[in-house]
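Researcher: I'd like a structural prediction for the single chain below. Treat it as a standalone chain; there are no partners to consider.
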Amino acid sequence: MAVGTVGFSLTKAFHYGVINMIPDEYTRVRSYLALQGLDFIWILMILIACRPRKEWPTFFTLSVNDLNEQRNRENAAGVP
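Model: Treating it as a single chain, here is the predicted structure.
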């Protein structure tokens, strides 16, 4: 995920720092398209890293009460 975010940020820095200074409009538009393709790859990398899991870890809870209930069930089942 870090690679995707750093790549996306560097692409934007290159876009606003270098590409906007190109005097030829045709070359500038082609460069925009190339950078937009890279943006798609970076965002795809971030989305793959943040995809939903099929099975969440047992320690992942949204509330403290759920954690207590889980501990009680484990204690009743004899799990230390």
